[in-house]
Amino acid sequence: MRSSASVVFAGPASPGLTLSPLRRGGGDPCYYDDVDGSIWRTSLMRTGPVTARIRRATVDTVDCEAWGPGAVEFTDTLPALLGADDDASGFEPTEPTIAAALRRVPHLRLGRTGRVLEALIPAVIEQRVAGKDAFGSWRRLVTRYGAPAPGPAPARLRVPPGADVWRRIPSWEFHRANVDPGRARTVVGCAQRADALERLVDRPAAAARRALMSLPGVGEWTAAETAQRAFGDPDALSVGDYHLATVVGRSLLGHPIDDAQMVELLEPMRPHRHRAVRLLGASGLAVYARFGPRMPIPNLAEM
């Protein structure tokens, strides 16, 4: 099955900026930036797997072609994915750096996938480990257990596994992918509750985040990372992130701060705290620390 759609925006279209949080590293088997500027993305929709090719056609228009059983559902939800439904009303920051970031990137849009498990499982895999290690784990598991991407997709693309597949992955395969037993149990536990999790898209974002945190192994950071992508939640602040508070402090105050100080600093921007953080990164105004050598993450597959 094939389907196509176009979305016209009131202002410049930025599909790469909106969709980039969905990419889990440069080798993500579910996401590919083509040399011609197109973005290839796979997903497992309610109606089945899909491969989509998304590209900016004009300054304000994005075109999409999709293939597979889930193609029509994907194109039907394309406006939400690209942030056409994102509501930034009331966001008028007075903090100088955030205000400057908004002037630089006035058309930043937060998209929503509507696919909870697809956002939650990679967030669980990314808990408490360096990004490159988590991306490698995700790549290995999806490449091995995902399905071939339908349509004329780039060869390395795979459709992420469904809940029934995640539930059956043996413990030793998580071990080989460098996912420790605690995170593996959380992944399996989330997959066991997949039907209830997918219904969270119908709840207000804050309530959905609280529901996510009721799951064993899912804390504030994981719930926020999931809500940002699945719900397009503009207030889902990633408290507990290894670097975020430091970046926010250096960017807004000129020195590092901790999580509690970050929450206090961004409180006036509620309910757009995540939007404020995204603007910092998208505008180029975020100030990152220079990190020295780190202790290497142990390779569980070799232990």
From TrEMBL:
Known EC number: 3.2.2.21
UniProt KW keywords: DNA damage, DNA repair
InterPro entries documented for this protein: Alkylbase_DNA_Glycosylase/TA, DNA_glycosylase, HhH-GPD_domain
Catalytic function, reaction form: Hydrolysis of alkylated DNA, releasing 3-methyladenine, 3-methylguanine, 7-methylguanine and 7-methyladenine
Gene3D superfamilies: Hypothetical protein, domain 2
Protein name: DNA-3-methyladenine glycosylase II
GO cellular component: cytoplasm; protein-DNA complex
GO molecular function, one term: alkylated DNA binding
GO biological process, one term: DNA alkylation repair
Keyword Transport found: no
Species for this entry: Mycolicibacterium poriferae
